[in-house]
Amino acid sequence: MVLIGLPLFVSAGRDRDCLQAGDTCSSDDGCSPRLRTLRQCVAGDGSVKLGPGARNQCENAVTALLSSPLHGCQCKRGMKREKNCLSIYWSLHQSVLHGLSLVESYPYEPEERGFDYVRLAYMAAGEYEVGITTLNRCLDAAKACNVDETCQKLRTEYVSACIQPSARSGPCNRARCNKALRKFFDRVPPDYTHQLLFCPCTDMACAERRRQTIIPACSYEDQDKPNCLAALRICRNDYVCRSRWAQFQYDCQPSEHVASGCKQDNYAVCLLAYTGLIGSTITPNYLDNSTSNVGPWCSCSASGNHREQCDDFLEYFHDNICLSE
């Protein structure tokens, strides 16, 4: 048994990628059994398998692994084997999220790709005029995507996936649709995706085009609205959705102590985090065509004693200066 506070081994260097860190740990005689124990700890019947003293075994495993290559490892959003990578991260961070409490970190590496945020802000300010002709920015965004090979290809893929009827699923296969949507927003540069999602509108036709960007009949809407906390529980049981929600909480956390009103003081990363939620069980979209208000397809009407928690969840979308700005 390893004493708490004493490292089982010392890593010569940190593997930033959790998949690489997991491979390194699995090939180490000291790390490997601790990783196996940890996975049993986070499994539903882990305590039964570990028997008496399960809690101490789990605590010792976590303490030992904090000195392993696993500590501090991260994943890339949209990477191959993303779920495998995230499962390794959350095995060590299983207790990070409690209910709706805010998190101080999330699994993903910072986005290296950038985009012209100043241009996006200018674009979002409204339609502009050239001579006597008013240009529709939402239509321009669609045309720009069609010119770019990657954007056009992946947009065609998700549209096809989201409108194709399924013998088992009815009007569409939602899981297939959402997977294609995640692929689009993870792999296409935000210069294109953000113009499609956040283009300004001054008429109903434009607003409807914007609302239909993610094919809501398949990816977003359902016959009945589920309770938001129930949707969030499903999200937290999925490694990808849990990670996207953690990123959104962190990068879109409002604060009264920062002039911008956003704790990270960076509206751009908040928009990236927002797009990461699309294709999940808490996918957000425009609530109507008369405003730019967004939110997931869910309700707090049946929240009972947890109504305040549910309202807090919705406020992240309905009343969040980081997102609205």
TrEMBL record:
One of its GO terms (molecular function) is signaling receptor activity. It is found in: Cell membrane. This is GDNF/GAS1 domain-containing protein. Residues 18-97, 138-218, 228-322 form the GDNF/GAS1 domain. PANTHER family: GDNF FAMILY RECEPTOR ALPHA-4 PRECURSOR, GDNF RECEPTOR ALPHA. GO terms for biological process: cell surface receptor protein tyrosine kinase signaling pathway; nervous system development. Keywords: Cell membrane, Glycoprotein, GPI-anchor, Lipoprotein, Membrane, Receptor, Signal.
